[in-house]
Write a structure and sequence with these properties.
single chain; 292 residues; alpha/beta; D-Maltodextrin-Binding Protein, domain 2; 3 domains; 10-stranded mixed β-sheet; LysR family transcriptional regulator; WH-like_DNA-bd_sf; DNA-binding transcription factor activity; sequence-specific DNA binding; LysR_HTH_N
Length: 292
């Protein structure tokens, strides 16, 4: 027996004083209403209505006592259904890297709706995404992690506006000489200002005898790309970003550097399982395993 549905019929019949009117109010056929009330009476072990009354549905003393709590149960059930509907319609907030392409994020949103999810996508930097997830301001976040711990990995290389070649770039080629008045820089964009990228590259630069100032974190991607376009400087980025910026991209010889991403948060598993392939596309990455 469905206790809530039985109580709904009981309340309508009790308030209307008629099985016919009560069944209509409950939107069920009269025989169904009669069966539900009978089942409820069997469940309680007491009569709710006086069967000696031929026309009207007259409540027994027990029935009058049970009507108010039955009303409360029905009201709570209706409130629960309302809140469940509200929760289903509430967007699932997801923090993503600001480097994600808008078209890819639109594809992610479309795929989410097909999967029964409504996303509220928020672009943020690495530290901001971590803080948003920790403070529960978002229900899931794509956080920057070392590649060894990542679900998605994005290889990084160096992009230039001046050099059109695909051969791996040797950092030693940037080593300053006495004949040069200036030196070339590698610009790190904010998305890559994390230890497993920044520190690895700086360590590699030190081994290649570069000056500390030759590897610099830019305040924004726009500033970094602008510096590269007006000089022979280089931008640390993915091959896809370089293509979007119309720059020539080269891998770094001998020093693999990569972004790593993992999903965290209360709804991380749900989002990853439903949208993992679309997230990988938005990141410009390959998933580490089939489940992602």
């Amino acid at each position: 027996m469905d206790l809530v549905k039985a109580c709904q019929v009981f309340v309508h019949v009790g308030e209307h004083g008629s099985f016919t009117a009560g069944a209509a109010a409950a939107r069920v056929p009269q025989p169904v209403a009669s069966r539900r009330v009978a089942a409820l009476e069997e469940h309680f072990g007491q009569r709710l209505f006086d069967r000696s009354a031929r026309r009207a549905a007259v409540l027994t003393t027990f029935g009058r006592a049970m009507l108010p709590p039955a009303k409360r149960l029905v009201q709570l059930a209706e409130a629960l259904e309302y809140h469940a509907q509200e929760a289903r319609l509430r967007p699932l907030t997801l923090a993503v890297p600001e480097t994600c392409d808008v078209r890819d994020l639109a594809g992610l949103d479309a795929a989410a709706r097909e999967a029964g999810l409504m996303l509220d996508v928020r672009g943020a930097g690495p530290s901001q995404r971590t803080e948003l997830q920790r403070s529960r301001d978002v229900r899931a976040a794509i956080e920057a992690v070392p590649p060894a711990d990542a679900t998605w990995v994005v290889p990084l290389g160096l992009a230039s506006a001046a050099e059109r070649t695909t051969t791996p770039f040797r950092l030693s080629a940037l080593r300053p000489s006495r004949a040069e008045a200036t030196y070339r820089r590698i610009w790190i964009q904010p998305e890559d200002d994390v230890p497993h990228v920044r520190d690895v590259l700086r360590h590699s630069g030190h081994r290649a005898a570069l000056l500390p100032a030759q590897i610099t974190v830019a305040p924004t991607l726009v500033a970094a790309a602008g510096a590269v376009l007006r000089s022979r400087d280089l931008l640390l980025c993915s091959a896809r970003q370089a293509d979007d910026l119309r720059l020539a991209w080269r891998p770094i010889a001998g020093f693999p550097v990569a972004r790593g991403y993992a999903m965290t948060g209360d709804d991380a598993v749900r989002v990853r399982e439903a949208l993992g392939a679309h997230i990988a596309r938005a990141l410009g990455a390959a998933a580490r395993n089939a489940d992602a």
